[in-house]
Amino acid sequence: MGNCENQMKHPVFKAKIFIPSKGIDLRVNSSRLMYGGFIFLITIASIASQLNLSLSIDYLIRTLLFSLLGLILFASYWGAHENEKKFGKLEGEVRISLDSIDFNNSKYSWSQIDQVKFGVFAILGEKLWSDTYPIARYYGGPAYSQGVDSFIEFKFDGDKVKVFFQLESPSHKVELKRLMRLLFFHDRIDLSTTYLGLNLEYEEIQKLKKAKIKYFEDQHSNFSS
Hints:
The protein starts with a helix and ends with a helix. It is α+β, with helices and mostly antiparallel strands. The chain has helices spanning 2-9, 30-49, 55-81, 170-185, 191-198, 202-224, and strands spanning 12-20, 88-97, 100-103, 106-109, 113-119, 150-156, 159-165. Helix 4 crosses helix 6 (202-224). Strands 4-3-2-1-7-6-5 form a seven-stranded antiparallel sheet.
């Protein structure tokens, strides 16, 4: 029972760390295939239109242009079903609590860090287009997120530290948002950091302020009882 109460008082968010790779990503994906096909199609069509070609060469050019068009359509179909594969790897784990941020065998206490920023973005498998404008998914993929764009960044001993991590499910994302709200309630991060990281609108910011007041009222009430 004591351990359960301790976990409730001190929640911990855990996630896999995403480490972006350095260098140039030369992998082929639907987007590169599509726009590469467009470039070649326009280039060849422009050159061919300026030349007087023989019948056999003209036939080859037309065949090539139709082949490129088919490649573009294939890339569009691929992109509509493609899962994002960022240039990097998942390695290690980050732990964020009301006391510290832990990763790579290092522990950063909230009392020792400043200039905190964070961002909460798409989860693993979440579609990267809007239902209000679904045609956008055919512009070249990927269509579904790898969920590795969320991050936390801060200054420690004058150095900037930034770690990306993967959100694996809707509940995992909710867990992160709840913890970031608690960090604001306990003055680990300020109001602007919180609403910018959570991407809150004006009305939601006002609710957040009231929620902080109510949180401490409830805490005080529980302590008194």
